[in-house]
Amino acid sequence: MDLGLHGKTAFIAASTGGLGRSVAEALGREGANIVVTGRRGDEAAAIAAALPSAIGLEVDLLDADSRAQAVDAAEAEFGTIDILVINGPGPRASAASDLTSADVETAFAQLVAPGQSLVNRTLPDMRERGWGRILAIGSSGIAAPLENLASSNLGRAALAGYLKTLAGEVARDGVTVNLLLPGRIATDRVAALDAATADRTGVDVDTVRERSAAGIPIGRYGDPAEFGAAGAFLCSAQASYITGIALRCDGGLVRSL
């Protein structure tokens, strides 16, 4: 299937590793111009060099000036942005009963504010052209809140509510807005969470992974490439009638429809 992405420009936040990188690489294989971003500028440049048409930029998503400068650089290189992929690091693991006001502020600062500001910057051009894709990499915690990830559950749910509202406002302008929710995908972030669970429970990390995989109907963690392919489809011309959804890429982990 031709996804109709050749020549489109995609800005992928936090794409020097994990799920962001998997979506960037999938879009790159489909012929899109890719803007790889992350705090590790050298890593962003190396990833971009391996793609057919890409640049790598050092960006601090929590800094408004850094975000704005990155969008400026992307537009100077490729023109206006057609696809925005919202992504970012998760807050620290914690129980809901242990949250502080600082934790709540951090959750919004990390998971809501950067994406909302990037939307404000890129959306007007999408609406004017009558074509655009906004995709947020979320978490299955939006569908079923995850134990000991209260800050993440809070911030990601807030972002989801904002994006669902936005989807209804811009649908007639040819702009789709969706979320892609990972389950247990084999990334460094999931490895760190497994290690934290092992430390907290006194169980070795291999046992933690085995128990986690046993709870997934497919019986294994997902491959980042599988997640990236799903993301590329939601950003495609072929997905023009799909908007306002939260698609789970989780191997059946969440049992609700």
Features of the shown structure:
7-stranded parallel β-sheet, 257 residues, alpha/beta, Rossmann fold, 2 domains, 47% helix, single chain, 9 helices
Structure overview:
- The longest helix is centred in the middle third of the chain and has 21 residues.
- The chain is α/β, with parallel strands linked by helices and 257 residues long.
- It is 47% helix and 14% strand.
- The protein is globular, with a radius of gyration of 18 Å.
How would you describe the shape?
A: globular
User: Roughly what percent helix?
Assistant: 40-55%
Low-confidence stretches: none
- Distance from N terminus to C terminus (CA atoms, Å) equals 27 Å
Task: Give the neighbour order of strands across the main sheet.
Answer: 3-2-1-4-5-6-7
User: Mean pLDDT score, rounded?
Assistant: 96
CATH topology-level name of the largest domain:
Rossmann fold
Number of helices: 9
Task: Kindly report the name of the CATH homologous superfamily of the largest domain.
Answer: NAD(P)-binding Rossmann-like Domain
Largest sheet: 7 strands, parallel
Question: What is the strand content?
Answer: 5-15%
